[in-house]
Amino acid sequence: MVGEKNKPFEFEDWIRENGSSLSLFIYKQVRNKELAEDLYQEVLISAYLHLGQFEERANFKSWIFKIAINKCRDFWRKQKTVQKFWEEKVFHYEIECSIPEPEDYVLTKCSIEEILEIIKELPTIYREPILLYYFKNNSLLEISSAKKLPIATVKTRMRRARNQLKDKSLLTEFVAN
């Protein structure tokens, strides 16, 4: 291998002289010491294995730094995939396999008709959000947009409805959450 001044040099010599700048470059990309050390090792291994592909007309430093940035990009792509897995797959799996919610427990304990009769006693402005949230599975944001109300108003109405329902012994566990 030929250096910048047409003097032969060895891969190991270049690493001894310039390895710290390569390591620092990788660290600045990932901002994690242990990860930077791992990526540094991967860059060195990759560069050593592909030394035969290095073209003498290119600058060796540019070539090895390009390998380093590519390894960092590979890591970031892999992280996005792992993060999506945890956000999508595992989250949904936990929901499906979780312990029944208190609402489910109360709904099985009491008949839906009894609960609806008690909720019907509420004023309309409090009844609608409760029905949409607990029985239609709408989120607070969905209720807010459907009723054309600020989300804070929906939250307030939900809280007031729960407080009114707490007086009813049948729904104490239902509205506790």
What does this structure look like?
This protein has 177 residues and is mainly α. The chain folds into 2 domains: 11-97, RNA polymerase sigma factor, region 2, helix turn helix motif (Rna Polymerase Sigma Factor, Chain: A, Orthogonal Bundle); 102-175, Winged helix-like DNA-binding domain superfamily/Winged helix DNA-binding domain (Arc Repressor Mutant, subunit A, Orthogonal Bundle). It is built from 9 helices and no strands. Helix 1 (11-30) runs antiparallel to helix 2 and helix 1 (11-30) crosses helix 3. 14% of the residues are buried.
Briefly summarize what is shown:
Helix content is 75%, strand content 0%. It is built from 9 helices and no strands.
Which geometry do the CA atoms define? rod-shaped
The string of secondary-structure elements, in order, is HHHHHHHHH
* End-to-end gap: 70 Å
Structural class: mainly alpha
CATH architecture of the largest domain: Orthogonal Bundle
Number of H- or I-type helical stretches: 9
User: What is the domain tally?
Assistant: 2
The CATH superfamily of the largest domain appears as: RNA polymerase sigma factor, region 2, helix turn helix motif
The number of distinct β-strands equals 0
Would you identify the regions where 5 or more consecutive residues have pLDDT less than 50?
2-8
